Structures are given as C-alpha cells and as structure tokens.
Amino acid sequence: MSAEKHIRLLSDTVINQIAAGEVVERPASVLKELIENAVDAGATQVDVELVDGGRRKLVVTDNGRGMNRDDALLSIERHATSKIRAADDLVRIGTLGFRGEALAAIASVSRFTLTTRTAEDEAGTEILIDGGRFREVREAGCPVGTSIEVRRLFYNVPARKKFLRAPATELNHARQCFLVHALSRPEVGMTLKVDEKESFRLPAGDDMLHRIGALYGTSLLPSLKPVSLRMHGLKIGGFAADPTVHRRGRGDQLFVVNGRPAAAPLVYHALNRAYGDLIPKGRHAIVFLFLEIDPALVDVNVHPTKREVRFRNGAEVRDLVIEAVREGLRGSGSGADGAKASPAHSAGWTAPAAGRDSKTFSPLPAAGVFRTGELLRTEGAERRASAEEGRQPAQAPADSPAPPWQNARIRGQFGGLYVLLEAEGGLIILDPHAAHERVLYERFMREALEKRVQSQGLLQPVSVELPPRDAEIVARHVSLLVEMGFGVSEFGGAHFMVDALPDYLREGDPGELLLEVARALEAGGGHGGTETWAHEAVARAACRAAVKQRDTLRTGEIQGLLDALTRADMPYTCPHGRPTMIYISRSELDRRFGRAGG
C-alpha cells in the first residue's frame, strides 16, 4: 500500500479563494476592481449602487465596450486578461488592471452576476456564479457595456465575513474608493446610489475644480492653490490647499500617477517636507496631485491590490513634488511649463467657510511670491534706508494683489498681546508673537540653507565630547557644519573644539547643538538632515527672539511688522503651524449679532 501523498494540487475553488484573500478585503476592494475594469473598457459613464455598505449588494454598471459570449466566459477565469500578453508588458503598464485575477476572486466569495454586450452583438450575455460554482450562462437583453452585481460578499467564507465591519464603516470605505476614482477621472461621468438614494451624480467631462467642489463642498475651493511643474520628463499638476486648512488623516490626499490612484510613501514624505512648518504636527494637508511619467519608470506591480507604486528615480520624483507644491503654496501657480494660476485661485485673501475640522475663520494670503523684509521697520523707514543705500525698496510683484492687512487701520492692542486691525469688510486679530516668529524664521532659514549664516564667536572656546557614534558623524561633516555657521574642529577622539555658533543660536549650548545636528544628519543624510535640523533649530530660535506677551508695541512697530509679514513667503502661520492672524468678516459679525440680512 503506497504512502499517502502530503503534497496535493489545490482545487480551482480553493485557489480562487486564496486569490480573493489578497485582492478582496472588503466591499471597497470589490468596488475598486470593478471601477478600474470599467475605465479600462473605455466607459464614459460608471454607475455604482451599494446596499448595506456593499455587504448585501454592490453593482457597477458601465457603458464601455462590453464583451461577447466567449470573452465574458474567459473573463471569470484566473489570469485571463486582455491587457497584457507577455512578461515584458509588465514594464510598461498603461491600464489600471492587468493581472486577470479580480473577477474570478470576487465570484468565488459571492453570488455573482455578469451581464454584458458589445455594439456588434444583438443580444447580450449573462453569467451566474454562486460561491465560485458556475450556475448558468444565457442570452440577455441589455445595453452596450457591462454590469456586474455582487451579492452577499463572503457568505460562503465565514472566517472572512466576520472581519467585515459595521455597514456604516464599510460604506465609508466604499465611498472613499468612489471619491478617489471620481477625482482621478473627471472625464468619466459617475453616479453613486446608497440604499436606493442617490448620493452623487457627476457629469462626464467635468472640470476638475467643479468635481472637487461636488465631492468636497465648494467651501474648499477658495483655499486651493494650483500646482504645475514640468521637468526631467515628469509632469506634475493639481491643487494644494492653503496650510490653514488641514485634516487629522491622509484621506484627503489624492495622488494619481498616469491616471492610476495610488499611494507612494515617498510622496507622503514629500508632502510633509513641502508643508513643513506650515501646519501643526500630526495634521495633514489637503492635496490633489496628478503625475505623468514614462510608464517604464514606475512599477505598479508592487502590491497584490495595486495599492502602491514605486519609482525607479524615486529621489528625483520626491524633490520635484516638493518643489511643485512649494511653488504652488507661494502662489506663483506656474512651473517650467509656464502654466498660470487661474483667477479663481488668485483672488486674494478670503475666509473659507467652516468645514470638517474647521475651528476659526483663518485668512488666506494673496497670490504671488513675497520676499522676506526687515523686521519692525515702518514703510517710511525702509524707504529712507533704501535711499541711503542707493537702492529701491523691495516691492511685491506687480501682478500680486495687496493683502488686506497692509492697508488695515490699527485700532489698538489688548490682553497684553493681540492687535486689533480694521480691514475692508471685516476685523483682523493679529498675534504679533506668531507673526514675528514667521518673519524671523524665514530670514534665519534662508540664511541657513543658502549658507550665508553669520557666526558669533564665543568668549571662550568650548570642548565638547560626543558619544562615539555621533562623534563619527560630526567628524564626517565638519565642513558642512562650518558652512552652517559653526566654528568647530576635531580635537582628538570623540572631542571637538567649538569657538563659534550661528548668530541666531548664539545663546545655545554647543554640546547639545552638535548632538542635535549629528542625530539629524544620521536620520536624513547630509543635505536632507541639515534642512530638517535647521528647520527645528531655527523655529526654536525664532520663537525665543520674537516679541513676547506683555510687550507693548508702538504703532510704528506694528506697522513695520505688518510690512515685513507682507513680504514673507508664508505669512499666515508661524513656524509651528499656528495662525498669525484670524479674520472675521462683517457678515459673520452681523450673523452672530442677529443682524443677518438686515
């Protein structure tokens, strides 16, 4: 009697359910695969219906090319696809789907109905599958395109079904999936029906801003800054929200590469770097970015669900995203391709309506690139100083509207800190400390990054001993530290002699500063680590040097601070993300006092 075999071939049903474990996590996963198939089929209209968060019923109907009977039967087989033919095709994938696993996997864990017809066929084809078991194929009367109905997801896999969340949770995931795909393809009309009620009806050929407004609310639109950059074979476009609008999570950060909604850790890192000090820690900006790149330079076959992409030239992509977003936030709205900001997004300073996570009415800056000015100078004093030096005073770009605080009337200071300003159409409350921090931070930071830091010699050189690992790092970067304004030299072993510090850090402890730099260099490398450390150190220095609470400011000093703030790159937040000022419109005051419409 032969020994029992321990290795066996799995049945197709088990294989499909294993694939389902990788591809189908929840109703939102099913929705993602079906919308991608619809888009790949050339659909200009995609309609989605959900019942019970998609757990009981999920239907996706499109007007794409459809399939004939033979193709429809092949489509539910594993690894059957029209999108790639050979392994080399994986290097240049131009479609959203390509593996040919999704329909077979979905059909294996649900009651599945596929109805489809091509323009050439008089009758369509309907296929019924129950938990991976083929039930019936028959002719059906239907329009050109494809409709797939998925009922009772995971009904035959109890171990998977118990991991589904409450209907509301599953609905939120499915709605987010719909939103992401609707934003990534504004040329495609889309509808979403939830429990027999229509939630969204988005027309085909939509303008991107109109679609963002339809999905997020029009109150978000005034805060969006155009992002546009074309360089080194990459094209980056989209919108980045003003730093005064931010969220707790990354759910409102959309990244689309070659038409594919995707995630990429380096892009999230780039967005953190681009916003840097402009938003509070733990908060995330609202960004809609679209990147076009040679498909050969991006790998979409990284994750079973095609959730992430990887770039061959990742560092370059990261740096270009940072540059594109920063330029957009500065208000220039143009990149190497010369695309200009639309008038709707350069309308100046306005107060966005309260939305999710909105706590205050926060001012938005006028569009344009502002230059950092000197602190606490009146405009007249600057003109006099300029005349003495034989130069023209700094001016904002001619095409940039003046921010309203520039011409606001100063009404006084209260609470030992805040300044009241009367502006056209409303009231401005200025925090001089936060505003002063912003001005000092930008001046110090620019000097640090451009290596124009003035050094302050110490009265007595200080010997510093560092842990061996940190000492090794500092020793490798002594020349870089000198460029940053440190007077530092090796003194043998783990010892260093420090005889000068950057001017803005002259009150700091040499040992602690060297240790901070060493840790930053270890985490981020030479230039990246320098920028990270410089931001944190400069922010602290600016905070220490800024005017303090209870400091009484003269009218000329307040005016000088406002002039300097006008020339700041990012005048609306301090380096820690707090607002420099709050704007309350006259209409909001009237509403609060019961005078609305009066």
TrEMBL record:
The keyword tRNA processing is annotated on this UniProt entry: no
Record's keyword annotation contains Phosphoprotein: no
Source organism of this protein record: Kiritimatiella glycovorans
UniProt function note: This protein is involved in the repair of mismatches in DNA. It is required for dam-dependent methyl-directed DNA mismatch repair. May act as a 'molecular matchmaker', a protein that promotes the formation of a stable complex between two or more DNA-binding proteins in an ATP-dependent manner without itself being part of a final effector complex.
Region feature Disordered, mapped onto this chain: 331-357, 380-406
SUPFAM superfamilies (alphabetical): ATPase domain of HSP90 chaperone/DNA topoisomerase II/histidine kinase, DNA mismatch repair protein MutL, Ribosomal protein S5 domain 2-like
Protein encoded by which gene: mutL
Record's protein name: DNA mismatch repair protein MutL
Bias kind Basic and acidic residues: ranges: 380-391
InterPro entries in alphabetical order: DNA_mismatch_repair_CS, DNA_mismatch_repair_MutL, DNA_mismatch_S5_2-like, HATPase_C_sf, MutL/Mlh/PMS, MutL/Mlh/Pms-like, MutL_C, MutL_C_dimsub
MutL C-terminal dimerisation domain: residues covered: 410-553
Domain DNA mismatch repair protein S5 intervals: 212-330
Entry-linked Gene3D superfamilies: 3.30.230.10, Histidine kinase-like ATPase, C-terminal domain, MutL, C-terminal domain, dimerisation subdomain, MutL, C-terminal domain, regulatory subdomain
Gene Ontology cellular component terms for the protein in this record: mismatch repair complex
Annotated keywords: DNA damage, DNA repair
Family membership: Belongs to the DNA mismatch repair MutL/HexB family.
PROSITE patterns named among the record's database cross-references: DNA_MISMATCH_REPAIR_1
PANTHER family assigned to the protein according to its UniProt record, in alphabetical order: DNA MISMATCH REPAIR PROTEIN MLH, PMS, MUTL, DNA MISMATCH REPAIR PROTEIN MLH1
HAMAP family in the record: DNA_mis_repair
